[in-house]
Amino acid sequence: MNRILSEKDYQHFIMERLAQDNGYIIRQATSFDRLFAMDREMLYKFLNETQPEAMRALRKIYKTGLEDTIVSFINSEATKSRGSLLEVLKHGIEMSNMKLDLMYTQPATTFNKELLAKYKKNIFSVMEEVWASDAERMDLVIFLNGLAIMTFELKCNAAGQSYEDAIYQYRTDRDPKTRLFRFKSGVLVNFAMDLEEVYMTTRLSGKETFFLPFNRGNGKGVAAGAGNPIDPDKYSVSYMWEDILTKDTVLDLISKFIFIETKEKKDDATGKIKNSEAVIFPRYHQLDVIRKLLIDVCENHTAQNYLIQHSAGSGKTNSIAWLAHRLTSLHDAANKIIFDNVVIVTDRVVVDRQLQKAILGLEHKAGLIRVMDKTCTSSDLAIALNGNTKIIATTIQKFPYIVNSIAGLKTKRFAVIIDEAHSSTSGKDMAAVTQSLGAGDQDAPDVESQITDEIRKSGKQANVSMFAYTATPKPTTLQLFGRLNTKGQYEAFHVYSMKQAIEERFILDVLQNYTTYETFYQINKEVKDDPRCKTTEAKRQIARFVELHETNIAQRIEVIIEHFRTSVMTELGGMAKAMVITSSRQGAVKYRQAFEDYITKKGYTDIHALVAFSGKVKLPDDDKEFTEMSMNGFSEDKLTGAFEKDDYQVLLVANKYQTGFDQPKLCAMYILKKLKGVSAVQTLSRLNRIYPPYDKKTFILDFVNSYEDIKAAFAPYYTTTLLSNSVTPTAIYDLEAKIDAYAVLDPDDIEKANDLLYKEKISSKDKQKLTFYFKKSKNLIEARDDRQQTEMVTLMRHFVRFYEFLLQASCFEDADLHKKYNFITYLLAYISIKHPGQGYDLSGKIKATRFLQKKGEEHKKPDLVASPVMKLPVAESFGLTEAKEERLSQIIAEINSRTGKSYDNDVAVKAMLQIRDILLKSDKLKTSAKNNSVKDFAFSYFDGIDDALIEGLSQNQDFFSLLLGHDEIKKQVLGIFTDEIYKSLRKA
Length: 988
Hints:
It is a single chain. Strand 24 and strand 25 (about 625) form a beta hairpin. The longest helix has 24 residues, at about 785-810. The chain is an alpha/beta fold. InterPro entries: Helicase_ATP-bd, HsdR_RecA-like_helicase_dom_2, P-loop_NTPase, Restrct_endonuc_type1_HsdR_N, SWI2_SNF2. This is Type I restriction endonuclease subunit R. One of its GO terms (biological process) is DNA restriction-modification system. Keywords: Endonuclease, Hydrolase, Nuclease.
């Protein structure tokens, strides 16, 4: 037998693909200049071929020293404090008043033939076994026009290693000061890649280097998880050389995606503002959605709307920046610009500066973007919409004006990018908040509802395309922005699910440590008489009384504080924080008072709380007026900054900071409020931010909601499946039977794999096939929980050892069993990967602790099942007047076009009138009409339609069958009778 695949084989295979399929030049590692991280020969070749006149002029000036001068100047520009390799590549260099371009990007149109010709002259090359220094050797380095732009550390699963080993090497064996790896001036990105997965980083920082997955995702829609799909004919990561490393994609990434992000952070000790930089390289789903959107827009222009359902942790700000920037210069096949303006709509009162910086980081051009902040008026917006500013960023409060203004600008074409709801810096909460226990303040409609109402008023404008980003689309959002699939359901144009984000470790699963508490109490009368009360109002008052009862609050505060101090406080190296979700503003005030009373009584000095609520609050039997500022001691615009500091650990909120608040140090949440639907998801998602390099854990104590209700809220946006089974090993055939019981080994795969293993010579294609067989089994094993995986691997190891013993100690022969032994032997080598860990040195930074669950039900692992289908609103109802009969004709014409049927209008109307007569005789509907509003009556009305259709089926079978089989058409057609039948039955 031959070895399946070595790391060297894999390395050579990639190089062959790059050379044969992508036109790369394979260069010897001896051509690498480690001092400047470049291939001088390829650089000179590019410059001489694309800019001969400039090179001739410069050669007259610098003579034989030209090449060294160019190399030194490029190095100087790339390594200076404000310089970078990215800027040098994008903008070139200028020497002696002569401009030298170091790469050519693809022109937006095909008009400029000279630029197209130069674009094709970009030189891509690859080297293997490149010594970056005497102690650092890279498997592959990619060059653009002689400049090193990417490194690859490759690992082969079949050899018992994975991408994690590659990450470990980058973290521990690669010096960030080495010229090839220097931040900004070295390569743009470093990839850790095995046969199955890819991870990347743009900055090496020793053992604290943070790697991001660069995988396609495994699965479709809301079921998509981490990793990559398996393919019987390709490696799972083949998209890297078939797409990402192609010349067009690399140049597109450099010119239109990669940018340098600068963040400002205030130093608590000095009060000074410090800048931190990061090279932003798109994650795969970000690159994927932008490219797919551009392709669709080029074909459909402004005819379509788009819904992008991306989970928290998806990098939405950068995705919006990339999309806005690309749409400004997007041309169609006829080389015509598609959009005149791009409008970004957000709810932030102060529009996100990060978004503006990201756009300007891609192209710093005067007049490219105009931010309509809180000082701008609707008139300013009108001027911007009518002007030449390509990108206009404005707040959600001005959205009605945007719609109306765009409707009047028919000669211009607009792309409107809608950012989902976030809390503004002033703390205004625009998200939907459900009332609980009859308490709390009435909130304004959420952002989605506002946008929905305004679009309904205006309708889809022919000159406008809308791009709506949300992690939690409502039914109305799906209907307005989604697209019909083959099953007649509305769905998002692109999905990056919560499940995938969790599995890729961008966010945490907040339902993993969830404990519920129950509050028991007894209500007694304090008066002798027994007055009659309105039931609903009485229940609300009792609930509010219980909620704000001092004893109840005191008991809950004790649980919260003691739990935080004993189980949460030491997380994140002692920086952990918590949020308490109260049900009302009065509740927030009283819980904060109880909090202060308790820590004072206990003498605790290591825990302090802030409170967040809007307006002024008075408590019963207390004339004192409370505000957020008076209780905290500073204005509300300073709250987020204060909570970031180590001085405060707990934030008690009432209808604030439940959406859009991004504090990665939040580890625990204490729920004192009824949460439902999207509100529950958005509130609990405040906990899901990771906080590298710490291994953050989350914990929720819920005093109000049931775990089942919370799971139901997450179900449309999140999916996790747990499988269980159990076996134990005994003898060889028993071991075989128990292994087979798991159904992870395909007998046909075993047969085919052995055929290949015993071939005289294994080809590259054979190796891919073998990889597929082992990957298939590996995936099936990893689909089980940790316990079952351990059992299966233990069974297989016992099987191998016992079988080998039998072969040595007896004359045992079983050809089929031997084939299985061969397969399992290789499979064990394939899955038994020694992971050296993440490479973090956490000594002194964190303390190993675990969350304690003392009361109520504890839920360690969520057993959620996705429930992606939502109900859409019932079609509008209208009566059968002459005008509506004309509309009926339009409806039937639409039915004909959608179904291929040709129903005669008169026959159809006659059939519908027959249905109406049947419905008018229904006692059930008569009772419903007399006891309900027309809105509530509609539910029983549409339920009764099916009975009427079945009754009339014998006379109008074809048409009735169509209505019975298509709910949407049925409601459109027969909705015309709702009002008429309701009024008739109500009078009967």
